[in-house]
Every structure is written in C-alpha cells, then in structure tokens.
Amino acid sequence: MRQYRFGWLAALVTAGLAMGWAAEDKARRAQPPAIREFMREKLNHSQAVLEGITLEDYDLILVNARKLLAMSQEGMWQAVEGTEYAEHSANFRRNAAALAKAANLASLDSATLAYVRMTMSCVECHKYVRGRKSAALNTPLPSQADSVAPLVAVNADVGELSKSIER
Ligand code: HEC
C-alpha cells in the first residue's frame, strides 16, 4: 500500500515536471552551454534522490541533497538577478535541507515529503523565470490552468501524505 502510494506520487511529480519543461524548450536554446550543463546537473541529482527514496538508500539521498544544496550557493545558480529569484532559491534550500535532514534520520516518509516539496520549488522557480522571459518578449503566457493542474494534484497528495505522517 505504502509503496503503491509513493509510486503514484513519483509519477505525478514527473508528469508535472515534464509539462513544465516542455514549455521551456524555446527559451533554453538561448542559454550559454556551461550554464545549461550546470542547470541540467540539478535534474541528475534530483533523479538520484528519487532513486534513493525508491530503494530506501539514505546515503544516495543524502549525497545528492547535499550536492543540490551546494549548487544553490554557486555563482552559476544566480543566473537571474533580483529578490524574487533569491526568495525562490532560499525556499529551494530550505526544502533541500529538510531532505538531507530526513535522510540523516533515515525517515522515508519525511524524505518523500521533502522531495515533493523540493520538486515543487524547482517548478515554482522555473515558472517565475519563464514568466520573466515571456514578459520580456511580450508574448502571452501559456494557460495558467494547464500549467497548474498537475501541481494542484500533487498538492492534494502532499496534504494527504502530511496527514498520514503526522498521525
Ligand atoms: C531559484 C531558481 C531555480 C530553482 C529552485 C531550480 N532551477 Fe532549474 N533553472 C533555473 C534557471 C534560471 C534555469 C535556466 C533557464 C533559462 O534561462 O533557460 C534553469 C534551468 C533548468 C533546466 C534546463 C537546463 C537546459 O537544458 O537548458 C533543468 C533541467 C533544471 N533547471 C532542473 C532543475 C531541477 C531538477 C530543480 C530542482 C531540483 C531546479 N532546476 C530548481 C532556476 C532554478
């Protein structure tokens, strides 16, 4: 039952990310290769975290959560200026830190919850970055309802998961 629930969550999160990135396709071609490479690294590490969660390998979760935390302090991460981007970064760091802590405590439920929250902070920041780009190019944003639907579904599930952990 528990495994089934996590599998479903992982599928939802993946679907949400895929939808978000499809829309990013055009803008990302303008990115210098070094920054693009750096940004893609985040995906490798978050996939490794998911692997750690599914295999209950806390070292794998910890190593990759720490790597993501360290990356968020690097110069290349600061690709966008402004307080809003800094807030998204801080939010991401909080969730990645919670993930590392959960791995340290060998708590699978807390790690899963922190992973979903961290993933949502990836998506939130990307939405912000894309929004800025669209505004700069003066093109209309994609339908809010479309881009938000998978997140709403994930949110509902996170609520359920939180309740079951707190029980
Ligand atoms: C604080 C903001 C922020 C957070 C949080 C964030 N990203 Fe990004 N991400 C960016 C920016 C900025 C770009 C570059 C977008 C552009 O200008 O093309 C980017 C681009 C990417 C790309 C596209 C790279 C390419 O091929 O062009 C991937 C993949 C990515 N991020 C993965 C992730 C993952 C996975 C997470 C969470 C674990 C994450 N990001 C969290 C800001 C963020």
What does this structure look like?
With 167 residues, this protein is mainly α. Helices cover 82% and strands 0% of the residues. It has one domain (32-166): Four Helix Bundle (Hemerythrin (Met), subunit A). The protein is built from seven helices and no strands. The longest helix is centred in the last third of the chain and has 30 residues, at 108-137. The chain is globular, with a radius of gyration of 16 Å. The two termini are 16 Å apart. The structure holds heme C. Heme C binds at residues 27-28, 31, 36, 39-40, 42-43, 46, 68, 79-80, 85, 88-89, 92, 118, 121-122, 125-126, 129. Heme C is lined by residues 27-28, 31, 36, 39-40, 42-43, 46, 68, 79-80, 85, 88-89, 92, 118, 121-122, 125-126, 129.
> How many beta strands in the DSSP annotation?
0
What Rg, in angstroms, do the CA atoms define?
A: 16 Å
Oligomeric assembly: single chain
Name of the CATH first level: Mainly Alpha
**CATH architecture level-2 label:** Up-down Bundle
Structural class: mainly alpha
Largest sheet: none
The CATH H-level superfamily is Cytochrome c/b562
Q: Supply the number of helical segments.
A: 7
- What is the helix/strand order? HHHHHHH
The CATH topology comes to: Four Helix Bundle (Hemerythrin (Met), subunit A)
Question: How far is the first residue's CA from the last residue's CA?
Answer: 16 Å
As a percent range, the share of strand residues is: under 5%
Whole-number average pLDDT?
Answer: 84
